[in-house]
Amino acid sequence: MKLVSFEQGGRERIGSLHEGVITDLTEGLAGRPLTMIDLLGMGENGLEMAARAETRKLPRIALNEVNLLAPVPRPGKYLGVGGNFESHLQEAAHLGLKRPQFPIWFNKQTTCVTGPFAPIHLPRVSAQLDYECELGIVIGRRCRHVRIEEALDVVAGYVVCNDVSVRDWQLRSPTATLGKSFDTHGPFGPWLVTKDEVADPQALRIRTWVNGELRQDGSTSEMLFSCAALIADLSQVCTLEPGDVLATGSPSGCGGLRNPPAYLRSGDVVRMEIQRVGVIENSVIDEPVRAQ
């Protein structure tokens, strides 16, 4: 099943997608308006009701008539992992990047989240704008101290993430948070693909194109720490909640490590695809000048 958040008439709504048609679930499942976090918080019962929604008399909307939002427009937590792909470690070895003993976690502030086809901003304060295609895990159940053998049981589904990075801001402090958290630098989607449609999250092809040129071509089989291992690790520290998003790392080919570096510029188009999950595409625009 594919779950979407979308905007219609200036209102945020949720639905299930089948063959290009969205079944609006916003008000038809619980007798009250639901957000995606609300739906995920209903657990398996909520997902089962969503799966059966096509048989009910609920509003239907064509996909091409709505503005897709990130499936979880404002997750409670959005975290990423650095140096989690073998090919990325190899391409960055000359910079002294070593194989980590434990997952290297960083926060992406949730105000960075934007839609799967929304523009991303080239910041006024940097020209080192970079891309990273990553498999995103969306948590479906409140949990803590999860055993690795049971970790995938707490997953609601998967998304395509562009872990947009501003490299000079990323490197200016011991943590990467600032360089990972600029507004619009967290597009993901295009929908949440429920875990039953992804038999093995460690066997998915990941690709990125910039202006039609293939830049990244890897597989989640390269991960040093699997999806299950990441969930088990993080859950030792903090409670994971429905709608939390964990981006799992990226293969080789990011712009900053090319020779010479190939950072994104205004007018570039970044397309990302993960097998069985979907495609997102974002145009780069200059950061708008806002009134102070």
Work out the oligomeric state of the chains in this entry: single chain
Low-confidence stretches: none
Q: In the CATH hierarchy, what is the superfamily of the largest domain?
A: Fumarylacetoacetase-like, C-terminal domain
Structural class: mainly beta
- In angstroms, what is the radius of gyration? 18 Å
Indicate the CATH topology of the largest domain.
Answer: Fumarylacetoacetate hydrolase, domain 2
Nearest-integer average pLDDT: 95
Please report the total strand number as a whole number: 19
CATH C-level class of the largest domain: Alpha Beta
How much helix, percentage-wise, in residues?
Answer: 10-25%
Strand content: 25-35%
Alpha-carbon distance between the two ends? 43 Å
Shape: globular
Largest sheet: 12 strands, mixed
The number of helices is 6
What's the helix-strand series? EEEHHEEEHEEEEEEEHHEEEHEEE
Number of domains: 2
Identify the CATH architecture of the largest domain.
Alpha-Beta Complex
